[in-house]
Design brief:
Helices cover 9% and strands 41% of the residues. By secondary structure, the protein is mainly β. A hairpin with a 5-residue loop joins β37 and β38. α1 runs antiparallel to α5.
């Protein structure tokens, strides 16, 4: 589109701020090209679908009400459906015809559906506000069950086929976490690993790693979380100001927790409602502090003794992590500051799109390497990394290990890999490409070895996170296809599901749907068991 103002209206109006309509009954997509016959199952995605209720609008794009949608593949055909998550938040807002439940970037006054605060009790955890159950970020699998999730202590069980909303689940009934990630890890045995923060638990604030066993090991069929096990707890450096995090890393034998200096001020959060500010304003970045790397041994369930750190950074997504010759290699998408969240305030979206300046902080694909076999006699300033990489790790005068990353590339976000290679040495990452702010117009395949980047783009089309599905007879890491839900802002073109050959990055097919497809955040592919 030649006119910048028209493009801004297209992106902000059509893609970000327009309320979507659900499509509860499956509709058959129009397929161009072909759908691989072996592709049988459902792509299930989650993201914001309602941004205004009555005369009120959410302040931030990430606050929108959850809209689940799915693409089901059956014998070369594709079927689409979508449903709003019928959370308590959704029901209260719709009944009142206005926003009455607070979200992270939008504080509601008053909030009649729930009491914002508990009464003052002995422990700090009792003054943490009760959060929304608008679970709009991702889909988590526990046992054979699927849950819509965000970053609070609430998740909502859903039916992955009908997209119906089922029971509300509170993590606090099973593990003491007030906040938890929407990016768990899964091992080959069917265990689900996740991370959360216990705020003020017995006077201490801790990061907890917990494991939920598969259904086969679950004696209570009512909830897989009944058998959740705390693997490890890590004391936060700051009791009243724990680190914010969105994901963590896992190898075969270790879990990587990054305690970044992007911190939640719990006292400010507990008083935000009375002070007339949102919870997001209670997060601050401390660029003069260290970023700590906690390496937890899964067998001993304890952190390794050495203290590893890096310069201040902000990150949301781990890419992958693996072990190599006595080292742990972990890759993340990092920023120099916390401007990413600020960019997605609705008031900032239009301003950001009309400015010609670059994003304040470009996402950078960084590789850190942590040596596990340390010689205590090693002198200060000597590089302890013994594998082939530009990343370094050096002992400082305090005996702590300062790590500096290798920069693999810039400008990519929402990274996904072939998950069969999670925790293993890998070569390829699939991601959204950020070239012109604030949202991606391209998806890419990046080769870590050659640094080659293959690109897909389509005019006036806005791609969601690319997801890799392996071929059932895969011989190589990139044997499979890439799926991405594409929102079209061109009134002459329908939105569609894109299918790319993961090896060549050439289009295999697309499935266009006559439905109100929204730009989503994260999701999973559920293979057909038949």
């Amino acid at each position: 589109m030649e006119n910048r103002d028209e493009l801004v209206e297209s992106v902000v109006g059509v893609v970000f701020s327009t309320n979507r309509h659900e499509c509860p009954d499956p509709i058959k997509a129009v397929v161009q090209g072909s759908i691989p016959k072996w592709l049988q199952g459902t792509l299930l995605r989650n993201g914001p679908g309602i941004h205004s209720i009555g005369e009120m609008s959410y302040n931030h794009w990430f606050d929108g009400l959850s809209l689940l949608h799915s693409f089901t593949f059956k014998n070369g055909d594709v079927y689409y459906r979508s449903k709003f998550l019928r959370s308590d938040t959704y029901n209260c807002n719709m009944e009142a015809n206005r926003i009455v439940v607070s979200e992270f970037g939008t504080m509601a006054y008053p909030d009649p559906c729930k009491n914002i605060f508990s009464k003052a009790f002995t422990y700090l955890s009792h003054v943490v506000p009760e959060f929304t159950d608008n679970c709009l970020i991702n889909i988590i699998k526990f046992g054979d069950d699927y849950y819509a999730s965000s970053e609070t202590n609430f998740i909502r069980k859903i039916d992955p086929q009908s997209l119906d909303t089922l029971e509300k689940v509170d993590y606090l009934k099973y593990v003491t976490v007030n906040i938890a990630t929407s990016h768990p890890h899964y091992d080959s045995e069917g265990n689900t690993f996740n991370m959360g923060t216990a705020i003020g638990d017995k006077g201490k604030t801790k990061y907890l790693i917990f494991k939920v066993p598969p259904t086969a090991a679950n004696k209570d069929k009512k909830s897989p979380l009944k058998n959740a096990e705390i693997l490890c707890s890590i004391p936060a450096h700051h009791l009243l100001s724990p680190s914010y995090y969105h994901s963590f890393g896992m190898t075969e034998n270790y879990i990587i927790v990054i305690e970044q200096p992007l911190r939640l001020d719990i006292v400010k959060m507990a008083t935000a409602y009375f002070r007339g500010v949102n919870w997001a304003s209670c997060i601050s970045f401390h660029n003069d502090e260290k970023t700590w790397f906690h390496i937890i041994d899964k067998k001993t369930k304890k952190p390794v003794a050495e203290k590893f750190y890096s310069d201040a950074l902000v990150f949301y997504h781990h890419v992958n992590a693996y072990e190599e010759d006595g080292h742990i290699v972990f890759d993340i998408i990092a920023y120099k500051d916390n401007s990413l969240y600020e960019m997605f305030y609705m008031a900032n979206l239009r301003k950001d799109l009309t400015q010609d300046t670059a994003v304040t902080s470009i996402p950078t694909y960084q590789r850190f390497v942590v040596p596990l076999q340390l010689d205590k006699k090693t002198e200060v300033g000597v590089n302890l990394v013994k594998i082939s990489t530009a990343a370094t790790a050096m002992k400082d005068k305090n005996g702590e290990i300062c790590c500096h990353p290798e920069i693999l590339c810039e400008g990519i976000e929402l990274p996904r890999i072939n998950y069969d290679y999670n925790g293993k040495k890998y070569r390829y990452v699939y991601a959204s490409h950020v070239e012109w702010r604030p949202i991606p117009t391209k998806i890419v395949k990046f080769d870590i070895v050659t640094k080659e980047m293959l690109v897909w783009t389509d005019e006036m089309c806005w791609p969601a996170e690319p997801l890799f599905v392996p071929h059932p007879d895969a011989k190589e890491e990139d044997d499979g296809i890439i799926l991405s839900s594409i929102v079209s802002s061109d009134p002459k073109k329908s939105s569609y599901l894109l299918i790319l050959d993961a090896k060549t990055f050439k289009e295999v097919g697309r499935a266009s749907v006559n439905a109100d497809v929204h730009l989503d955040l994260h999701g999973i592919f559920i293979p057909d068991k038949n």
